[in-house]
Design goal:
The chain has helices at residues 50-54, 80-84; strands spanning 36-40, 60-62, 68-70, 90-94. By secondary structure, the protein is an alpha+beta fold. The protein is elongated.
Length: 97
């Protein structure tokens, strides 16, 4: 089991930052340093799931009703979902402090 982020020191890191525990990064919120965030317009969504397929961080969840939800704890704000959305239902805006 991975240590909590505040307990890790440089001595705990593997040489070359090799990941030896699959899934251990799921406890770290990688969306903290995001400079842009997605804004979702449900009215324009056609439930195609294209954004879900292209999200490199698996930060998009498909809800039971077919619409989506961004998990902002893990979304890095890359904007691929907005770029690939065929209806423009996702736009990127500057992250607020």
């Amino acid at each position: 089991m991975a240590k909590p982020e505040d307990e890790i020191t440089w001595r705990d890191l593997n040489v070359g930052y090799v990941v030896d525990e699959p899934g251990n990064a799921s406890i770290y919120r990688t969306g903290d340093w995001r400079s842009q965030r997605p804004v979702y317009d449900k009215e324009r969504c056609i439930k195609c799931g294209t954004c879900y397929i292209y999200c490199p961080d698996m930060a998009i969840k498909i809800l039971k009703d077919g619409y989506i939800e961004h998990d902002l704890y893990y979304c890095k704000g890359c904007g691929i979902c907005a770029e690939e959305c065929p209806t423009g239902a996702i736009t990127m805006v500057e992250e607020e402090e």
